[in-house]
Amino acid sequence: MIEKELTFLEAVKINLDECAEILRLDEETRLAIKTPIRELHVSIPVRMDDRKIKIFKGFRVQHNNARGPTKGGIRFHPDETIDTVRALASLMTWKCALPNLPLGGSKGGVICNTKEMSVGELERLSRGYIRAIANFIGPEIDVPAPDVYTTPQIMAWMMDEYSVIKGKTQFEAITGKPVEIGGSLGRSNSTSLGGAFALREAALEHGINLKTATIAIQGFGNVGFYAAKIIHEMLGCKIVAVSDSKGAIYNKNGLDPIDVNKHKEDTDSVINFSGSENISNRELLELDVDVLIPAAMENVIVEKNADNINAKIVLELANGPTTPAADKILYENGVHVVPDFLANCGGVVVSYLEIVQNSYAYYWNINDVTKYLDDKIKETYKNVLTVSREKELHMRQSAFTISVDRVVKAMKLRGSI
Ligand code: GLU
Q1: Cβ distance 340 to 91 under 8 Å?
Q2: How do residues 13-61 score in pLDDT, each as one tens digit?
């Protein structure tokens, strides 16, 4: 039977239920790990350029703080929903626990279309959102960061607004800032670099020679572009296909990520890139490549198309691209999935370093940041692989059991369960 279209939140809950079975958690613990500690629903009035006031809706969900202040990005997206933010906040809890960061999980979202807004409108919206949630965030409470359609400039405005409210500069209240104002070196491409390190480990494990490996990347935003660039330049792989919301392109001889990005900046899309063939997003997902990288949004590999995935490795740089039913099919078909909260945890790992540097007012060089990230991913990957082998679980189940176990232990020690 084909699974009904699951929402992202339902998918996360199914993963947690499965994990609870594996760990034999009792009922109250099961409920506790699924329940956010706080949810904010805010209205943000913004004076638009035509002088009219428009009211935007925003959310901030703090899922679990047993292991430390909550941490998570903010998405600016026209289709944002509270349930998606809930799912993403939960995922952040597991994403911070997996590499053993002393942080919990949260997520924010604002329903808006940044492509239709001026720079001034975007700044007023960003500042308004922070004013609306200011009493419930802070370095010891909850620390926001960038995510889909939010940028270092937006983080700069948010940090500034928070600092104005507090009457003192508070660099450590927001991460993903520009380096001139407390950002960490290496943060802007850390999600993709962490993904590349994870891919290196996965390829080693599966005997894939990265120098001849072919890669398809679904999504060519910040994360997708840097992934293409790093995987091409650092690992020597051939990027044969990339896509955006308008379509996909394919060239069996390989695409130059820098040239494709330039073409995208000039024409607003990757399609019609010279020397490549336009294909559909669906065709990209089903290409016969060594590695498929979903780097856009959730629910891309579902029960309906999972059997058609031909890649040997799926490296999830997007959050939640694969549903639980699809996971099972991929596992049975021998496709090695590097799950989102392992593959893309590089962003929050370097965000953590950003908080540490801000707190000490002492800044690391890029080699130190890169080495920390490399070691962290290597160790985390190994850990997930070992548990998956020992307990005969697929990589996502294994990662969930490690993270949930750590969070449950912290909750027990603190007395909340
Ligand atoms: N938004 C990123 C993520 O989903 C980074 C979060 C952070 O740095 O706090 O992992």
Answers
A1: yes
A2: 999 999 999 999 999 999 999 999 999 999 999 999 999 999 999 999 9
Task: Respond yes or no: is residue 376 known to be catalytic.
Answer: no
Is the pTM for the entire model greater than 0.85? Answer: yes
Give the atom of ligand 1 at the shortest distance from the alpha carbon of 175: 8
Pick the atom of ligand 1 nearest to 350's CA. 8
Helix axes 346-360, 366-391, angle to 10 degrees: 140
Q: Is 46 exposed, middle or buried (0-12, 13-18, 19+ CB in 10 A)?
A: buried
Asked if the domains at 8-16+24-178 and 190-343 fall in one CATH topology, the answer is yes
- Tell which CATH classification among 3.40.50.1820, 3.30.420.60, 3.40.50.10860, 3.30.200.20 matches the domain 8-16+24-178: 3.40.50.10860
Among residues 91, 84, 101, 77, which one has the least CA distance to residue 33?
Answer: 91
| Alpha carbons 82 and 97: distance in angstroms, whole number | 23
Residue 237 near residue 213 (C-beta atoms within 8 A): yes
Active-site residue, selected from the candidate residues 13, 71, 95, 107: 107
In terms of Cα–Cα distance, which of 308, 322, 258, 261 is closest to 280?
A: 308
Summarize pLDDT for 67-114 with one digit per residue, the tens. 999 999 999 999 999 999 999 999 999 999 999 999 999 999 999 999
The ranges assigned to domains in the chain are: 8-16+24-178, 190-343
Q: Which amino acid is at 15?
A: N
Structure tokens, 304: 């309906």
Tell which one of 95, 349, 358 to mutate to probe ligand 1, the residue whose CB is within 8 A of the most ligand atoms: 95
Ligand 1 pocket check: which of 147, 192, 222, 356 to mutate, most ligand atoms within 8 Å of Cβ?
147
Counting from 1 in the atom list of ligand 1, the atom nearest the Cα of 319 is 4
Reduced to 3 states, what is the DSSP secondary structure of residue 257?
helix
Q: Which residues, 6 or more positions from 389, have their beta carbon under 8 angstroms from its beta carbon?
A: none
Beta bridge mates, 238 = 214
Residue type, 165: I
**Assigned architecture for domain 190-343:** 3-Layer(aba) Sandwich (3.40)
